[in-house]
Structure formats: C-alpha cells, structure tokens
C-alpha cells in the first residue's frame, strides 16, 4: 500500500509515518514545514519505503498513491491564529486539492478533523450527532470554521463524485515530538516545569480537556482508514481533567516546588470537552489504552532529552 501523508513531518503525522512503515507500507510524506520539522522524520530518511516531499497543499500536486492521510494544517491556537488566512487556505483549498487527487486516483482519503468543530459545546460529552456551537467570527473561527468546511467538502465529494472518504474528529492529543513552541497546554506545562518556571494556567483552570496519547490516536486513525465506516468518528480519550488538575499532575511528576500562575483566559476558549467514543468502540473496536500518567511520563522524557539533553 502506497500512502500519502500530508503534514507527515508534524507531531501526529510523523508517528503515523512510523507505524505505516512498521507494517511494511510505503510512505510519501508531504509537508511545507510550517509547524512540522524535518527532525521529526530524520530517523526515516534512509528507509527504503520512505520519501519526503516539500510542498504546500494550497497548490495542487500530482502523485500516484493508493491512500491519502490528509493531516496538513497548523493545529495549535498559537500557530493557526498567527496567519489566520493561511490556515483557512490550508484547510479549505488544501482539502479540495487532496480530494481532487483522491478523485482522480480513486484513492481512499482520510481527513484529520477536530473536536473544535463542536466549538464551545452545549452538549456534554460530545457525540458525532452534535452540530456544535461555533463562533463564526472569533479568533478561533479560522480553524473551527475551515475544518467544518473541510468536512463539508469531504461529504460533498463523496456524494457528488463517489470519493471514498474517512472523517476522523481528533480530540486533544499529546506525546513525544510535540512542537515546543505550539503553546499547547501539555507542551507548555512540561517545558515550563523542566525549565523551573511557573506553570501558566489560563483563567482559573476549571475548563476541562480530555487528553489522548499519540499512539492511541494513530491506532484509531489506522483502524478508521482500514475499516468500512466513513465517519465522522470521534477519536479521543474520554478521561476528562481540569487544566488545574493537569498542572498539578505535571508538577508532581517534574518539580512539586514550582508555583502556578493564572493568566487571562483567551476568548472563545471552550469550557469543557469530552469525546463520546461509543462509535469508535463499536464500529472500529478501538479505545485508548494509555493512561495520562504513563503518556505524560513518556512525553516528559522526550522533552527532557530535547531541551536538556538528558
Ligand atoms: P502539527 O502542527 O504538528 O502538524 C501539522 C503539519 O502540517 C505540520 O508538519 C505542518 O508543517 C504541516 N502543514 C501545515 N500547513 C501546511 C500546508 N499548507 N501544506 C503542507 N503542510 C502543511 O499538528 P498535529 O497536532 O500533528 O496535527 C495534525 C492534524 O491533526 C491537523 O490537521 C490538526 O488539525 C489535527 N488535529 C490535531 C489535534 C491535536 O491535539 N494534536 C487535535 C485535533 C485535530
Ligand atoms: N492553557 C493553559 N495554559 C497554557 C496553555 C493552554 O491554561 O499555557 C489552556 C487553554 O486556555 C485551554 C486548554 O489549556 O483551555 C487547552 O489548550 P490547548 O491550546 O492545548 O488546546 P485547545 O484549546 O485547542 O483544546
């Protein structure tokens, strides 16, 4: 099987490349290195089944592949808000280009969509049937609305052109190779703690998230791609924590002496988020296996090696 992984040099994409190669597939990794890095796939450079292409998905491209894992898009609020229009182009034009490619090749295409399409949810936990509560003109809208449009495109190419689609709604995912400058809560807290700095909790830290370890995420993604269900399917860990609880956990694991400081809550920050994974459980036989403490320990070890060289 010859796979195109767009955004393959990113955090999740690089783990997906590893797993596809491990099972004997070929991987064409496509990335413009906007938030990803060559170092994430440096260990694969000499693998006979691996190829790296520098390309921006906003531009069309012609390739020969059997399957497309379409992950290219900045994912953290800091990065997707830094150039909101680029984010919209990547999500909308990039997805159209990949769908046109899938249509021409008769290739199956999976998109990495997001729990952000539920916005600041009024239903809890979130099932795939929930349509969401999204501000169309706020600072998160460039990401939320363009991912919603990307899902619309997936389903319209499916209905209109018979493209074989898979739609995955990813909830907060963490693990080794997260970008240190992403501003995400897990990477921020770990880097701050390792550097002996106070942990920055936005607001009172009572907002919740459910954190999924990257290996579990990639397992879910591969099952969705290999299976018969087009989705959308939530892939995330239903264990929900407040941000304050996460800060306390990281402090316990790295340095309990450090203080927590409170900074203003960004606008439109969702107050709660927890996936209902009934569909993933029943249709894909998938559920997360890695507990937060274990996943955090592996992520802390990775950041310790990268930041402190030990
Ligand atoms: P990431 O930023 O590490 O990876 C995204 C990759 O896409 C990067 O390598 C980046 O350089 C590349 N990219 C961005 N714009 C591009 C463009 N125009 N052309 C080509 N490449 C481009 O983020 P990630 O966490 O690995 O996220 C991967 C996908 O999963 C994204 O689509 C994201 O929206 C989705 N997702 C992630 C999470 C999460 O918690 N990590 C949650 C929900 C959805
Ligand atoms: N957050 C925080 N401190 C930080 C970074 C983030 O308290 O240093 C909060 C943020 O306001 C949000 C939650 O942690 O409520 C998750 O943020 P992240 O950017 O990781 O993901 P998202 O908001 O996209 O779920």
Description of the molecule:
- The protein is of the alpha/beta class.
- It has a domain at 2-173 and 213-236 and 275-289: NAD(P)-binding Rossmann-like Domain (Rossmann fold, 3-Layer(aba) Sandwich).
- Helices cover 39% and strands 17% of the residues.
- The protein is built from nine helices and 13 strands.
- Bound molecules: nicotinamide-adenine-dinucleotide and uridine-5'-diphosphate.
- Uridine-5'-diphosphate (UDP) binds next to helix 5 and strand 8.
- Uridine-5'-diphosphate (UDP) binds at residues 76-77, 172, 184-185, 188, 200-202, 207, 209, 243, 265-266, 269.
Q: Main attributes?
A:
alpha/beta; seven-stranded parallel sheet; 310 residues; binds uridine-5'-diphosphate; two-stranded parallel ribbon; binds nicotinamide-adenine-dinucleotide; 9 helices; globular; Rossmann fold
Give the gist of this structure.
By secondary structure, the protein is an alpha/beta fold. The chain is built from 9 helices and 13 strands.
Pattern of helices and strands: EHEEEHHEHEEHEEEHEEHEHH
The largest pleated sheet is described as: 7 strands, parallel
Q: How helical, in percent, are the residues?
A: 25-40%
Instruction: Tally the helices.
Output: 9
Name of the CATH homologous superfamily of one domain: NAD(P)-binding Rossmann-like Domain
> In the CATH classification, which architecture of one domain applies?
3-Layer(aba) Sandwich
Query: Rg, please?
Result: 19 Å
Task: Give a count of the beta strands, DSSP E runs of length 2 or more.
Answer: 13
Tell me, what's the shape? globular
């Amino acid at each position: 099987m010859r796979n195109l992984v767009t955004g393959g040099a990113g955090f999740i994409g690089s783990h997906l490349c590893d797993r596809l190669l491990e099972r004997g597939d070929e991987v064409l990794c496509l990335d413009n290195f906007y938030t990803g890095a060559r170092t994430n796939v440096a260990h694969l450079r000499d693998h006979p089944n691996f190829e790296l292409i520098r390309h921006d998905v906003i531009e069309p491209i012609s390739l020969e592949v059997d399957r497309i894992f379409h992950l290219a898009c900045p994912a953290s609020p800091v990065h997707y808000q830094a150039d909101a229009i680029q984010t919209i182009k990547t999500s909308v034009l990039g997805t159209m280009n990949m769908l046109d490619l899938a249509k021409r090749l008769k290739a199956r295409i999976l998109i990495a969509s997001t729990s952000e399409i539920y916005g600041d949810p009024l239903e809890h936990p979130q099932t795939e049937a929930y349509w969401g509560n999204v501000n169309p003109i706020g600072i998160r809208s460039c990401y939320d609305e363009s991912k919603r449009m990307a899902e619309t495109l997936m389903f319209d190419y499916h209905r209109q052109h018979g493209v074989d689609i898979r739609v995955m709604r990813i909830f907060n995912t963490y693990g080794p190779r997260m970008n240190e400058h992403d501003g995400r809560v897990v990477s921020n807290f770990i880097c701050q703690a390792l550097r002996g700095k106070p942990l920055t909790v936005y607001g009172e830290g009572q907002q919740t998230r459910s954190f999924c370890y990257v290996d579990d995420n990639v397992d879910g993604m591969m099952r969705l791609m290999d299976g018969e269900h087009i989705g959308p399917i939530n892939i995330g860990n239903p264990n929900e924590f407040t941000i304050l609880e996460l800060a306390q956990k990281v402090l316990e694991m790295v340095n309990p002496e450090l203080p927590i400081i409170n900074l203003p809550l960004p606008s439109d920050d969702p107050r709660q988020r927890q996936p209902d994974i009934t569909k993933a459980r029943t249709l894909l036989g998938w559920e997360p296996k890695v507990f937060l403490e274990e996943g955090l320990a592996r992520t802390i070890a990775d950041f310790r090696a990268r930041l402190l060289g030990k």
